[in-house]
Amino acid sequence: MFSLLYGLWNYLFSHAEFHVLILGIDKSGKTTLLEKLKTLYSDIEGLPPDRIVPTVGLNIGRVEAHKTKLIFWDLGGQLGLRSIWEKYYEEAHAVVYVVDSASRNRFEDTKSALEKVVRHPDLQGAPILVFANKQDLPNAVNAEELSRYLELKDQKSVQLRVQGISAYEGTGIQEGVLWLVEAMKNNVRTLQLQRQAEAAVTL
Ligand SMILES: Nc1nc2c(ncn2[C@@H]2O[C@H](COP(=O)(O)OP(=O)(O)OP(=O)(O)O)[C@@H](O)[C@H]2O)c(=O)[nH]1
Ligand SMILES: [Mg+2]
Questions:
Q1: Could you tell me where the beta strands, DSSP code E, fall in the chain?
Q2: Does the active-site annotation cover 196?
Q3: Overall pTM > 0.90
Q4: What is the per-residue pLDDT across 41-97, written as a single tens digit (0 to 9) for each?
Q5: Could you say which DSSP state residue 52 is in?
Q6: What are the boundaries of each domain within the chain?
Q7: What does the alpha-carbon distance between residue 132 and residue 104 come to, in Å, rounded to a whole number?
Q8: Which residue has the CA at smallest separation from atom 29 of ligand 1?
Q9: Atom 21 (ligand 1): residue with closest C-alpha?
Q10: How far is the CA of 52 from the centre of ligand 2 (A)?
Q11: Mutate which of 27, 99, 134 to test ligand 1's pocket (most atoms within 8 Å of Cβ)?
Q12: Ligand 1 pocket at CB < 6 A
């Protein structure tokens, strides 16, 4: 019985696509990360950093990571564009929240934007992976220091992890994505989204 259920579970997930939102304030490195994800996990070579411009619309990256199909949505982080983020919340399985770990003068801004994400009712139950980006810079704070700044230890009800990365060098990214994939698979929100998708197909 267990192996039957396990087989069914695996079958469902091998066919499912997970929607992952990439959020964070402007210049944190979201699009640079998206392009690196394409390089790491697909046949497409992502754009080099010097060809990336600030995001106004939406960038999409479809990859297969750790035997799981992932669709990343990368949105613009400028102040005037952040109100668009919530339009994507209902359909998102998880969030990757990118922080520029070397810009201490912007930690307050990134903290308050993250708090709104964590508290939003449309994202209830979604795992949140905070990427402490730009670890290649000498003045970057590490993942532990950053979680102290962001006061993330108090968020007990949320599945949350802080991971140091460099979107330039690619370090730390796969470790974080592996955690996210496992978190999404063991998650009530994922089951709910899957049921909604199935209901939409049978209507
Ligand atoms: N040193 C360093 N710089 C980075 C890294 N990732 C991104 N950057 C730089 O940070 C700046 C912003 O990168 P983007 O990827 O455009 O940032 P974004 O978060 O997509 O910005 P918006 O689209 O405006 O919200 C660029 O100059 C990047 O080259 C990194 O890992 N290390
Ligand atoms: Mg961008």
A1: 17-23, 58-65, 68-75, 94-100, 128-133, 160-164
A2: no
A3: yes
A4: 999 999 999 999 999 999 999 999 999 999 999 999 999 999 999 999 999 999 999
A5: -
A6: 2-202
A7: 12
A8: 49
A9: 27
A10: 8
A11: 27
A12: 24, 26-32, 49, 52, 54-55, 76-78, 133-134, 136-137, 166-168
Q: How far is CA 152 from the centre of its chain?
A: 16
Q: Provide the annotated binding site.
A: 24-31, 55, 77, 133-136
Determine the average pLDDT of the residues in 4-18: 66
Distance 131 CA to ligand 1 centre (A): 12
- Please, what is the Cα angle at 163 between 37 and 114, to 5 degrees? 90
Q: How is residue 191 written in tokens?
A: 């089951």
**Span 124-147, mean pLDDT?**
97
Amino acid at 170: G
Radius of gyration for the alpha carbons in the chain, expressed in angstroms and rounded = 17
| C-alpha of 73 from chain center | 9
- Decide which of 3.40.50.920, 3.40.50.12100, 3.90.79.10, 3.40.50.300 is the CATH code for 2-202: 3.40.50.300
Residue 161's pLDDT band, with cuts at 50, 70 and 90, is very high
From ligand 1's centre to the CA of 49, what distance in Å? 8
Q: How far is CA 173 from CA 103, 166, 180, 194, 201, in A?
A: 20, 8, 11, 26, 34
% of the chain with per-residue pLDDT over 70 = 90
